[in-house]
Specification:
The complex is a heterodimer of chains A (390) and B (165). Chain A has 13 helices and 14 strands. By secondary structure, chain A is α+β, with helices and mostly antiparallel strands. In chain A, the strands form three sheets. Chain A has a nine-stranded mixed β-sheet with strand order 3-2-4-7-1-8-14-13-9, with helices on both faces. In chain A, strands 10-11-12 form a three-stranded antiparallel β-sheet. Chain B has 165 residues and is mainly beta. Chain B has helices at residues 10-16, 27-34; strands at residues 39-43, 49-50, 65-69, 74-82, 97-104, 111-114, 116-117, 129-137, 140-147. Chain B is 9% helix and 32% strand. The chains are: A alpha+beta (390), B mainly beta (165). Chain A binds chain B through residues 118, 133-134, 136-143, 147, 150-152, 154-155, 157-162, 164, 199-204, 247-248, 250, 252-253, 255, and chain B through 17-21, 51-52, 58, 77-86, 88, 91, 96-97, 99, 101, 109-115, 126-127, 137, 142, 144, 156, 158-160, 163-165. β5 (200-203) of chain A pairs antiparallel with β4 (74-82) of chain B, so a sheet runs across the interface.
């Protein structure tokens, strides 16, 4: 059932967003240290102290750990949602709107661990973590987890007969954009030749089809729209949010690319939101794998099934070597997960906030007022949020 | 259907399948593997199959779900070739390792993921028919698939040709 109810619309705001920046190497720092740095930075920027926070929301470290690490005196609500990151924002906004709390510190630590990069195993402090391993069994005979996207990429190519270049355009766009983002992990531009000759990891996807495991963190302050108007930065209103999922959400049982969590997310957002893709100034489709981005273009309604690559070619700005939809709307201007770093969506939301606040520096989209973030993939993790400047 | 494997204790079952999600709902499936029987949950009330094992039938909510033997015949639905992956006895990623999701003949959309043995990688494409086979890994049977010797179904080859694997 998809409901158009949205009493929270424009009642809750993101008052600020901050990042530590991201590094594609084992940094020699803990995940907690990055979360602390980003959290302290966003609270300073918003002119708030620990005592102003009465809600905490993030994945790891736990909300309880973050409270004691930052000496936040009393909280009346906390949660530890799973990725991707729209989940955290939706939970915090709901808690503020319902009155469970008033001002939430929302954080996300991106961290290089064995589930996303084997080279993290060289660090003994990272070896103990096994998050994401063993989902379908210990051997390689499973498509649970990240392999699921590769498997469905094979189906996408099979059903639509599209060339690998269509995937490559997503990677090149992100890398071009990351060159303008000092927080990004990968800022060297790449060519289609680079993409097509890159190391194959899991056919049909290569190194540049997969996001870059990084160390770093983002943090946000989520509060009532009224309270946010008294804080230093322009409020960004949470207009509509949805976490879409269908019943058959295992990687190998999901019915097909024609109906999965992204479709539910889009249907719900369109029902709840006053604006959609014709009205946005900047678009943030998730890009943990290039196949996910292609699917978001199609499912958000920019084009039909199998047509995302042709759509991107049609809207490619040769002068800047990136996507500009209708010559105007950039896509993941921060570089996305493929080039800023694998933030599981927090980077997309952070950049959306900065664009709508006018704080995006050399990447600023002139007069940006509305943004769409579509986070996550096909299975249990498709989510989206529409944001607008107050 | 009583067999020696049915008498395998829960304790022994988890030691035979280290790292696998063996629990109350999936134990019958793993016991079946020990005697090379591929068992998938089917609802006695409405007849719908589901996979992986769940405690109730997702279609009708009956708890009369039973692990039933499937033929293992099916059609390749998804294909991956791993150029790197988790360590496993007998798996050498120097030759990219095929992982396939097979749609079983018992019911549209009912799928099982494993590898394919006995074929060159360039023969493994979406749409190929497969049968069930078994290998041993670390002394425990593992269900795998083998290509049926036939051409791909018509219309099922677009996009697969000429790709580097």
């Amino acid at each position: 059932m998809i409901s158009a109810r949205n009493p929270m619309k424009d009642k809750v705001a993101i008052a600020g967003a901050a990042t530590t920046g991201f590094t594609p190497h084992n940094s020699g720092r803990s995940q907690a240290s990055f979360v602390a740095e980003a959290s302290i930075r966003v609270l300073h920027e918003c002119g708030l102290t620990a005592a102003d926070v009465d809600g905490i929301c993030g994945s790891t470290p736990s909300a309880a750990s973050v409270q004691k690490m930052l000496g936040i005196p009393d909280v009346t609500w906390f949660a530890n949602p799973s990725i991707p990151f729209v989940n955290h924002l939706a939970a915090a906004a709901s808690a503020v709107h319902s009155g469970l709390c008033e001002t939430v510190l929302v954080y996300h630590g991106a961290y290089r661990l064995p589930w996303n990069t084997a080279s993290s195993l060289r660090d003994p402090f990272r070896r103990r973590s096994t998050m994401g391993l063993g989902l379908g069994g210990p051997g390689p005979e499973t498509i649970a987890g990240a392999v699921g996207y590769t498997a469905w990429a094979s189906r996408y190519m099979h059903e639509h007969g599209v060339p690998k270049e269509h995937f490559g355009l997503v990677a090149i766009n992100d890398r071009t954009n990351a060159a303008q983002n000092p927080a990004a992990a990968m800022r060297e531009p790449i060519t289609m030749d680079d993409y097509l000759t890159a190391r194959m990891i899991r056919w049909p996807l290569c190194l540049f089809d997969m996001d870059v495991p990084v160390d770093g963190a983002d943090a946000f302050v989520v509060t009532t729209a009224e309270r946010a108007r008294d804080l230093p930065h322009p409020p960004v209103l949470v207009h509509a949010a949805a976490l879409g999922m269908i019943d058959l959400n295992e990687e190998d049982q999901t019915p097909g690319l024609g109906r999965h969590g992204q479709h539910v997310t889009v249907e719900a957002l369109k029902a709840k939101s006053d604006f959609w893709i014709d009205d946005i100034d900047v678009y943030f489709p998730y890009d943990g794998f290039t196949i996910i981005t292609l699917n978001w273009f199609e499912n958000a309604g920019f084009c039909g099934p199998g047509e995302a690559g042709a759509f991107i070619e049609e809207h490619w700005d040769a002068a800047s070597n990136r996507i500009l939809i209708n010559g105007r709307i950039p896509v993941n201007p921060h570089g996305g997960s493929l080039s800023e770093g694998a933030t599981q969506g927090s980077g997309h939301v952070r950049e959306a906030v900065h664009q709508l606040q006018g704080l995006a520096g050399s990447r600023q989209v002139p007069h940006a007022r509305r943004a769409l973030v579509t986070a996550g993939g096909f299975f249990f993790n498709a989510q989206g949020v529409t944001l607008r400047r107050d | 259907m009583a067999s020696a494997a049915d008498a395998t204790s829960d304790e022994e079952l988890v030691t035979r399948f280290p790292g696998f999600p063996v629990d109350f709902d999936s134990a019958a499936h793993y016991r079946g593997r020990l005697t090379r029987r591929l068992l998938v949950n089917r609802c006695d009330a409405c007849g719908i199959w589901h996979q992986p094992p769940k405690p109730v039938c997702p279609a009708c909510w009956s708890s009369a779900v039973e692990a039933r033997r499937v033929s293992g015949a099916g059609t390749v639905h998804l294909v991956v070739f791993l150029h790197q992956g988790p360590p496993a006895t007998g798996v050498d990623y120097a030759t990219p390792y095929p992982v396939v999701t097979v749609e079983l003949d018992e019911q549209p959309g009912l799928r099982l993921t494993s590898t394919i043995v006995g074929s060159r990688n360039d023969a493994i494409v979406i749409g190929r028919r497969v049968t069930l086979d078994w290998i041993e890994r670390d002394g425990t049977p593992l269900p795998v698939f083998r290509l049926v010797d036939q051409q791909p179904r018509s219309t099922d080859t677009a996009g697969d040709a000429g790709a580097a694997r």
